[in-house]
Design a protein that fits this description.
Distance between the termini: 32 Å
Order of helices and strands: HHEEEHEHHHHEEHEEHEHEHE
Radius of gyration: 20 Å
Helix content: 40-55%
Number of strands: 11
Number of helices: 11
Mean pLDDT: 83
Shape: globular
């Protein structure tokens, strides 16, 4: 046997770098053991392109990289809630693959009088029917949804209360969705101030933050409809702001979403595969970040 491999400390270090197999999740490990860092995933906005989040979560699960916290903005809040409900990617994937545009967007002419084209009731019903937990506190994985107080512009982080309502508030795209009122306060899409909530995941205790930033789509032709123009414009602004926020993460994963539109729900499989490909490419950086944040067990 090679001399270096006879040294238990060296062997453990090699295994840690490859698979974290020597890591102790307990704070009471013995001498030489390591306590793994708390991992937070920050899922950004991006409309239907956010299906790519599922591919990223799938890779983390397959590689046995635990997710201790999920913070989501807009579609990231939706995918995050589907995942946090059971902590299994398959459950979120099955729900996402079944969703159609009509399941989330309930257009109504009268909604314009309330500040948007879409009421958002269908979105809440979708969450209620696919997430077993009714409150954020009941979710299996610690979770938070990010929205913005419309009057003050302050970022709001929902860490308790009804899941469906929090997701709705986080995904209420200005000018598209009717703003959401909760306890007398009006909220809009969290992407206005935190398109990729990496800093919020850090504040909530994550030692290592993996951010998923969805770039803006590049359509073959410029949008022509009012909703299409608004959605594409918002996605461009959010993507640019999101890059700045994502820089606060330890690792940024950017799936290649090509020309998939903000409201194109027919490309779910392709987007999930894009997220998986981007996450696999980022694995060396993710493992390095985890190794760098290991702490000796006490």
């Amino acid at each position: 046997m090679h001399k270096a491999l006879r040294n238990p400390a060296v062997s453990c270090a090699i295994l840690l770098a490859l698979s974290f197999g020597c890591t102790s999740t307990s704070p009471r490990g013995g001498s030489g053991q390591q306590v793994r860092p708390k991992v937070g995933v920050a899922l950004g906005g991006g409309g239907a392109r956010g299906f790519a989040h599922i591919g990223v979560l799938r890779v983390l699960e397959q590689e046995k990289i635990p997710v201790d916290l999920v913070v989501g903005t807009s579609v990231g809040a939706l995918i995050g809630a589907l995942y946090a409900d059971t902590g299994r990617v398959l459950d979120a994937e099955l729900a996402a693959l079944r969703v159609q545009k009509e399941d989330l967007f309930d257009y109504g002419a009268l909604s314009l009088l309330s500040g948007g084209l879409v009421k958002g009731e269908k979105l809440e019903r979708f969450v209620t029917s696919h997430v077993r937990a009714r409150t954020i506190e009941q979710l299996r994985v610690p979770y938070a949804a990010v929205a913005v107080e419309l009057r003050t512009g302050q970022t709001a982080v929902f860490e308790a209360g009804p899941v469906a309502r929090a997701v709705h508030a986080s995904a209420a795209i200005p000018g598209v969705f009717v703003p959401v009122e909760i306890d007398g306060i009006t909220y809009v899409d969290g992407g206005v101030t935190a398109p990729v909530p990496a800093a919020i995941a850090r504040r909530k205790g994550a030692d290592v933050v993996i951010a998923v930033a969805i770039p803006a789509a590049v359509p073959a032709d410029s949008p022509r409809t009012p909703v299409g123009v608004v959605l594409h414009t918002v996605s461009i602004m959010a993507a640019e702001i999101g890059r700045l926020h994502a820089s606060e993460a330890d690792v940024v994963v950017e799936p290649f979403v090509g020309d998939v539109g903000y409201d194109d729900f027919s490309q779910a499989k392709r987007l999930i595969e894009a997220g998986e490909e981007a996450a696999r490419a980022a694995l060396p950086r993710i493992r390095a970040a985890l190794a760098a944040k290991q702490q000796p067990a006490r």
